[in-house]
Amino acid sequence: MTLFHFGNCFALAYFPYFITYKCSGLSEYNAFWRCVQAGATYLFVQLCKMLFLATFFPTWEGGAGAYDFVGEFMKATVDLADLVGLHLVMSRNAGKGEYKIMVAAMGWATAELVMSRCIPLWVGARGIEFDWKYIQMSIDSNISLVHYIAMAALVWMFTRYDLPKRYRLPLTLLLGLSVYKAFFMESFVHVFLLGSWTALLVKAVITGFLALSSLGLFVTLVHGN
Amino acid sequence: MLEEAGEVLESVLKASCLPLSFLLFVPAVLLLLGPPPAAEAAHEFTVYRMQQYELGGQPYGTRNAVLNTEARTLEADVLSRRCVMMRLVDFSYEQYQKALRQSAGAVVIILPKAMSALPQDVVRQFMEIEPEMLAMETIVPVYFAVEDEELLSIYEQTRIASTSQGSASAAEVLLHTATANGFQMVTSGAQSKAVSDWLITSLEGRLTGLGGEDLPTIVIVAHYDSFGVAPWLSHGADSNGSGISGLLELARLFSRLYTYKRTHAGYNLLFFASGGGKFNYQGTKRWLEDNLDHTDSSLLQDNVAFVLCLDTLGRGNSLHLHVSKPPKEGTLQHAFLRELEMVVASQFPEVKFSMVHKKINLAEDMLAWEHERFAIRRLPAFTISHLESHRDGLRNSIMDLRSRVDSKTLTRNTRIIAEALTRVIYNLTEKGAPADLQIFTEQMQIQQEQLESVMDWLTSQPRAAQLVDKDSTFLNTLEYYMSRYLKDVKQHHVKADKRDPEFVFYDQLKQVMNAYRVKPAIFDLLLALCIVAYLGVAYVAVQHFGLLYKTVQRLSLKSKQQ
């Protein structure tokens, strides 16, 4: 397609980040460099994950089309490192809970957006061939922004010293869901042979559920005590 | 660590650390400035371009090879600067002309996978169209593609899009742009250009007769090249695979006869597989010039009994001896004619044999039959063929496939020629041999399997003159095959004159075409509107996030109070 199409995809992918940054008040806290640092942590964590994966999970050359559930599960487990990374970012920043969560999540999600979607969009959406997948990719980046905010909130709550006992179980469950979401999605798509649009919808629904639950917990935790 | 990273980034942005910023920005700049990348294609397929050549200064076929336009079918209203896709099954010359008159950007003709299963009337019709397509001045590229499932689906989608275009309302068109696909057809190759110094190769081999220096020579000639509207699709089974396989079989039989002293006849046999036969017999022409004008001694100069050209022998129940001058009585030429008639009448009564007399028309661009090349040089010559007229479309068609040659008929025709030739060489009739004497039986049988396998080999590759390189495996194999039976097998090359070339070939005859899925510009605009609306909603939602927060807070408090 054309440069115009790339512009479309780019706007769809990036503007929600921009809007969130501006409207959440982060810009007023002068949090830009904090976000960049969070992004740098993202890079570092991804590098560690990659090294780990390359060392312990050499590529499965299982038969074409075969889906290796155990292998994928193990790989998803490595994503636990993301939680550690988010915690690291938040523990380095002083401030209110919301502020810490937003800085970590924004930096994290933006770094992911830049690293994993920028080049495919530039290369793909500008080519002659039209494909819906670039629009889907852009929508997906919006979903992942919500996902990371929820995840950061969960990590923040989980690592509080004054966390009441009864919160521990739902928090663990939600954290588990957030880490293994990608794995669940992939298995789901594979088992039910979903189309790309349906898969995106399912992903949005799951992320919405995750985000609302985290919000509920956050609200009760912050205002309940 | 984080502080360090922050510092590094800061320093990069302040450009105080030049090499590092260079490292960071140069790839980014390169990426930005690079050309739009060719993404993975929706479908990639091989296309064969229509002929492009010049013969005697006259251009034929298409003049162009580059294609980058959107696909349409004939149903669309506007075809100008579009790539028109057609299927051979419903192809007609009128439609083809219509497309070109509307200044279509290109034409892609989709051939069915099983060409031999096509109905006869379609084949006949297309054979007649082919020369007209070539003669017509075509500036835009014309390509042929062999259909597969993907290509058919592209064709169907294009057809649906083309039909719905004219009648639908604006809303329908808008909806349509979002759901339907357009296809951008792009060829990967460069513009076609003339091939310089192309060599047309011919092969010669001989069997020397027994006794004396000045023996009469019988020349047996067949051209090996094939011709059709697209060079890569011309397999030329009947024309002239059948002629070459007949020639090779004759070479085999007579080489056996010539190894024994008792059957070693007093005739030299000269075999010639000529190249460029479809381009006014260029190979033959040069061969004659070389032999008659430039050398002192050659078999062709001294005592040529007659020249027998083999052309299209693989079908039908008739045989025609084409001559440009009826042979006079008492000549060997006449004797051969008599023998042919006798053999056919006594041994193969089902075959209709006749002599066709056609004077050479020097005013025409193309010579009709190969023997005319010899007749011009005053050598007694004739062509034997099952076709009655040289204008038959079969001689220049991509429809001339292996399945159109009947091995039995080819064997029978080869046998008739071999029998008649033997009767002339050994003078059997004058020696009192009966008319129904069968010479080629038992060990000397014409081997149908041999002819079949030679035919299979010949038709397994396109043998258009533009494709048969002088070092090609095809020529090497043919040379090897001839040298198994014949002596002094050698190549003759023709190169077109630099200043005033008699023939010019062009390249880019086979290309890879990509069909990219594309959307019209209006679709992008529509998409932009949708995205703006979405972003507006997102903005409002983020601005009023407090509402959601409060609602959740109220709900949680309520549940706590309960």
Q: Trace the largest sheet of chain B across and list its strands.
A: 15-14-16-13-11-12-10-17
Annotation field: number of helices of chain A = 8
* Low-confidence blocks of residues of chain A: none
Any idea what the shape of chain A is?
globular
Give an overview of the whole structure.
Chain A has one domain (1-56, 64-224). Helix content of chain A is 79%, strand content 0%. The radius of gyration of chain A is 18 Å and the shape is globular. Chain A has helices at residues 3-23, 32-56, 69-78, 80-92, 97-124, 133-158, 168-192, 196-224. With 225 residues, chain A is an all-alpha fold. Chain A contains eight helices and no strands. With 562 residues, chain B is of the alpha/beta class. Helix content of chain B is 40%, strand content 20%. Chain B has an eight-stranded mixed β-sheet with strand order 15-14-16-13-11-12-10-17. In chain B, strands 1-7-6-5-4-8-19 form a seven-stranded mixed β-barrel. Chain B has a four-stranded antiparallel β-sheet with strand order 3-2-18-9. In chain B, strand 14, helix 10 and strand 15 form a beta-alpha-beta unit. In chain B, helix 7 crosses helix 12 (407-425). The two termini of chain B are 49 Å apart. In chain B, 40% of the residues are buried. Chain A binds chain B through residues 1-2, 4-5, 7-8, 11-12, 15-16, 19-20, 23-24, 33, 36-37, 40-41, 44, 89, 92, 119, 122-124, 126-131, 135, 142, 212, 215-216, 219-220, 223-224, and chain B through 1-3, 5-6, 9-10, 31-32, 36-42, 181, 184, 186, 516-519, 521, 524, 527-528, 531-532, 534-535, 538-539, 542-543, 545, 548-549, 552-553, 555-557, 560.
Chart the SSEs and their pairings.
The complex is a heterodimer of chains A (225) and B (562).
Chain A: H1 3-23, H2 32-56, H3 69-78, H4 80-92, H5 97-124, H6 133-158, H7 168-192, H8 196-224
Helix pairs in contact in A: 1-5, 1-6, 2-4, 2-5, 3-7, 4-5, 4-6, 5-6, 6-7, 6-8, 7-8
Chain B: H1 2-13, H2 18-33, E1 43-49, E2 52-55, E3 58-61, E4 68-73, E5 83-87, H3 93-101, E6 106-111, H4 120-135, E7 142-146, H5 149-167, H6 170-179, E8 182-187, E9 194-195, E10 199-207, E11 217-223, H7 237-257, E12 268-274, H8 282-294, H9 299-302, E13 304-310, E14 318-323, H10 332-347, E15 352-357, H11 371-376, E16 381-385, H12 407-425, H13 448-459, H14 473-485, E17 487-495, E18 503-506, E19 510-518, H15 521-543, H16 545-561
Parallel strand pairs in B: 4-5, 5-6, 6-7, 11-12, 11-13, 13-16, 14-15
Antiparallel strand pairs in B: 1-7, 1-19, 2-3, 2-18, 4-8, 8-19, 9-18, 10-12, 10-17, 14-16
Helix pairs in contact in B: 7-12, 7-13, 7-14, 10-12
